[in-house]
Write a structure and sequence with these properties.
- The chain has 20 helices and 2 strands.
- The chain is mainly α.
- The chain folds into 4 domains: 86 residues; 156 residues, no CATH class; 119 residues, Serine Threonine Protein Phosphatase 5, Tetratricopeptide repeat (Alpha Horseshoe), CATH 1.25.40; 75 residues.
Length: 459
């Protein structure tokens, strides 16, 4: 039996099955006897060696695939389990995308994602130093030579890809990410197949630009659906694709999405480390709008850490940069005065919750709502819920009730982000016991309980 690098694919499927190593060994032995191979009788140690990269001889790969197919109710092949000459490391974002097999790696992620739609997330969230190192490597990676084949794309296919990606982006911003995630992952799977078939040099920039947009969107919809580890994988590929396309600032913008996720999950120091990395690269890339985005989000993190002076410094710097950013690329056009007002709003809210006086959040939420452009329905709903919660914090109960009832009209959309903001409102409402607020609290609790996507996070 050959030995190789750690088989993260097999480890992931073992985790997904819920079986112990001893039970896997027992099932393999029983199936082997049934198939006429009584000499195959592995133990727990042997299964662990397979997970660590040892490649079993036939027919063991086929037996393993049959066992997991039966347990998971999904047709799996030995290749899906990483039982090939060179298994793909699906359980890490540390370095795999720096190799020529990047599209093949992503194809493995999308296939696993689509197969496991009705089960818990099986990939592990990467955090701390490994996440920051991964982002640094991806941002600094040089573009690789293209395949000499050119069968994957022509001009018409690229135009269709661009149009489809733009349509998905619009739908996601209006209705939330969970509703369209599966379709976006399926489209991304098709794109990776075509990239492996080859990209003409004349279409390279357009192909990888559209792929970066689609992968970034796949990451965001995964995050909005509560699939946080999957989101990291798609974002890491989006950074890779942006590097292939040679788009200044695009990879940095995607790193800010990774930092947003860390903020959302309460890992503020991880978010700050990512943003420090993003700030250095943004200055080098020279995209003013991206620098403004980084500064705005950095201010938000410092507010969450209870550092009002640092928060104000970065938020004010973002104001200055945003005023200078007269020509913003389409992929960062969402970061405008309204989005920055939203960052100021949650910063003020967090400082208030940490005991700092004099930081009312409601004026900033009101500014965000006033400035929002059409087509951002999800974030507008989040602003309304945030405004209602802020008004409760500020003792404006009558206004809070009016805004809160308006917010509840759309608070049940397909979005973990909206659900998390709803949790923030419920926490604020717990401190008030008037009949009007009690009625609103009951309505909000019912919306939260029946929302298509549930979140335990208050954000």
């Amino acid at each position: 039996m050959t030995k190789g690098t750690e088989n993260f694919q097999l480890q992931t499927w073992v985790h997904a099955s819920g079986l112990s190593l001893g039970e896997i060994a027992r099932r393999i032995s029983a199936l082997a006897r049934k198939r006429g191979h009584p000499q195959i009788n592995p133990g727990t140690t042997r299964v662990r060696r397979w997970m660590n990269g040892e490649q079993p001889r036939p027919p063991v790969p086929e037996l393993l695939a049959e066992v997991f197919s039966d347990v998971l109710h999904r047709p799996l092949t030995p290749g899906d389990l990483g039982l090939l000459a060179a298994p793909l490391p699906l359980d890490t974002i540390k370095l795999p995308l720096l190799r020529e097999s990047a599209a093949e790696t992503l194809a493995g992620w999308t296939r696993m994602d689509l197969l496991m739609l009705d089960r818990r997330e099986v990939l592990e969230l990467v955090a701390g130093a490994p996440l920051v190192v991964a982002a640094s490597h991806l941002l600094d990676a040089a573009a690789r030579p293209l395949s000499l084949r050119q069968a994957g794309f022509d001009t018409a296919a690229v135009a269709a890809l661009e149009e489809i990606t733009a349509a998905f982006a619009h739908l996601e911003s209006v209705h939330g990410g969970a509703l369209y995630r599966t379709s976006i992952i399926g489209q991304l799977s098709e794109v990776t197949r075509r990239i492996q078939d080859g990209v003409p040099a004349s279409l390279r920039v357009r192909v990888f630009t559209a792929t970066a947009d689609l992968a970034a969107l796949a990451g965001w919809t995964s995050h909005d659906a509560g699939r946080y580890a999957a989101a990291q994988r798609y974002w890491s590929y989006a950074i890779y694709a942006a590097g292939e396309a040679g788009i200044p600032g695009r990879g940095v913008e995607i790193v800010t999405r990774m930092s947003h996720q860390m903020i959302y999950l309460g890992r503020l120091h991880d978010a700050l480390a990512l943003l420090d990395l993003a700030a250095a690269r943004a200055r080098r890339d020279g995209q003013t709008a991206v620098q403004a985005l980084v500064q705005s989000q950095t201010g938000r993190v410092h507010a969450g850490l209870g550092q009002p002076d640092e928060a104000a410094r970065h938020l004010d710097h973002a104001d200055e940069l945003l005023a200078q950013a007269t020509d913003r690329p389409a992929w960062v056009a969402y970061f405008d005065a309204a989005e920055h007002a939203g960052a100021r709003a949650v910063s003020a809210r967090d400082l208030t919750h940490l005991g700092h006086r004099g930081y009312p959040a409601s004026p900033h939420f009101e500014a965000a709502l006033r400035l929002r452009q059409p087509g951002f329905d999800r974030v507008r709903t989040m602003d309304r819920i945030g405004l209602a919660a802020a008004l409760l914090d500020e003792g404006e109960l009558e206004r809070a009730a009016a805004v809160g009832h308006q917010a509840m009209e759309s608070a049940g959309m397909q979005s973990a982000l909206v659900a998390s903001r709803l949790n923030t409102f419920l926490t604020a409402a717990n401190h008030h016991h008037t009949p009007e607020i009690a009625e609103l609290h009951a309505r909000a609790a019912d919306v939260a309980a029946h929302a298509p996507v549930i979140s335990r996070v208050a954000a």
